[in-house]
Amino acid sequence: MAMKIGEGKFKENVNKNIEDTFMRGAVASAQERLRTRRLDAAEELGNWEEWRSHGEEIRQHVLNNLDYYLHELAENLQKRGGHVFFAETADEANRYISEVVKANGGKKILKAKSMVTEEIGLNGVLEEEGCEVIETDLGEYILQLDEHDPPSHLVAPALHKNKEQIRDVFTQKLDYKMTSKPEELALYAREKLRQEFLSADIGITGCNFAIAESGSVGLVTNEGNAGLVSDLPKTQVVVMGMERIVPTFEEFEVLVGLLTRSAVGQKLTSYITTLSGPREEGDADGPEEFHLVIVDNGRSKILGTEFQSVLQCIRCAACINVCPVYRHIGGHSYNSIYPGPIGAVLTPLLGGYDDFKDLPYASTLCAACTDACPVKIPLHELLHKHRQVIVEREGRAPVSEKLAMKAFGLGAASNPMYAAGSKMAAAMMKPFTKNDRISNGPGPLKAWTEIREFPAPNRERFRDWFKQHEKGGGEQ
Amino acid sequence: MFQADVGKATVEVLERLGCEIDFPMGQVCCGQPAYNSGYVKESKEAMKKMIATFENAEVVVTPSGSCATMFKEYQHIFHDDPIWRPRAERLAAKTYELTEFIVNVMKVEDVGAKLNGVATYHPSCHMTRLLGVKDAPMTLLQNVEGLRFEPLPNAHNCCGFGGTFSVKMGNISEQMVDEKVDSTERTGADFLIGADGGCLMNIGGRIERRGKKVRVMHIAEVLNSR
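Output (structure tokens, whole complex):
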């Protein structure tokens, strides 16, 4: 599995997924819960808008000086005996990691949740090499058991499943015999995973933020699994998107606070782990070998363009949790491991318009995403920018739409044509009008009236009324 | 064209408050449908026409938060155009959405309207999030004699209009507007009030198609009820 998770067309996926009442129920209730928690956490902190601006400033500063901070990060980590590898593509990253695994005779690999490893399709590559790969984040663990069901959300990958469905997965795939109570399910998974932790050869994690000044990698979890994945196995591999970096621990603190509040409404998550290379003399635990793989995979092509701000993203999913479109279609409709508004912006940039040009249109531009983003990415504006690029630079818009919009350019801008159009409209629509309503409209109205009534153009135009009204001196 | 009553109500409410109204016949559409679909070049012609038409107005008031937002967006769209940018900035500075104008500029909170029944209010996305007009509509509506309010569940969620989205992504739009209609019905309200024609045409059209009894009203019509 890589970034693209399905072959279906966006519209086909949508048609299928809106019939999935379980998924829609699970998504709607999760959205409401996560949204409320985020708002409460922001209010409790106070001065939320100032924190957002500060977060934005940090992210923009890093992106504008990315080469400098990547160099600093790599240098500091290497000083402590860590290995650093810059991967330009997904293939390069996967190849390097495979070699590390082979060189260490690794058979059993433990993973903590990481979207970038999903993006490059790392698990599939390692499995083909004959390794056993075990996801240790509870959500990812459930999905892996369920025939590698792809994640549908950045933070809660199994958000599309309710607890009964999770119980069924455990019962069918493992020897689970208890109820669908979340506590029982979690305890069971914990016992199963604990055995795995003790026998793994290699640990692979993602990276929430790398800290340049100390050459460290910061991980944020609620389950503590990232700590175990990085402490117990002898060899440790960290995979990070090249933009996930902060200058110092001071900025780390700011961004972690924005991340945990925006993602799950917590001041801090239960575990915040920082790793700074292999175990040193006198250390009680930690890996003997430490590798940091920094993945570009299309990111550097976004730098310096009108889309650069998308790289500010800290993967909190606040935009997804408020998106009214995601609410009804779920994460899998997007065909990408990056769903929702952030996915609709990022996926076409990383994966191209051939496969993903529908995504920027999967938005009403309601701006709920922009409002929710803790680092102020203007998501709805970026979605609009994609549409402009698709129409003007790529020339990929449907011909009928192009003609209609050309007519709009001519008609709307010319007052005689606009006024005449409004005059003609009532007469033209008359055959379709019943009780001042159009239920089965012609041409462009057809799609509208498949779902809703359309008001018939008023017989008395406002323009005519106003002229009369003016003559009457404004009297009623 | 489709909502002459909203236009009339807007004129009558403002005149009653002592404003002198002009409706420059040269005006066209604000350009948003083409602009939001990515046709920036085509939409600029309509924008220029609007900027020129309203050049001599003291203030510009529109009964649509979305159109007002678009008027304020012109200055950014023409940001690298030395001729049109200053003109667009002047238009932005004097443009107001109707309720914002009444409450914040005219300093009126009670327009003396009367309407009997239970109402719920749908806050339109562009008006609340992009234009930043959040409180003015409810300030005015709470002073309408005879009207009682029930909160709309998940009011913050978009109704599914989104201009061309409503037809381009019709199947998603249908789910969104259905949730809005269901939420409205749950309040038991007689009226669903909003301040943006697009949203109201969408929700109203779906309410009628589903044969629901709720009456959809633009806030200008409510404020003009006596």
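Chain A has 23 helices and 13 strands.
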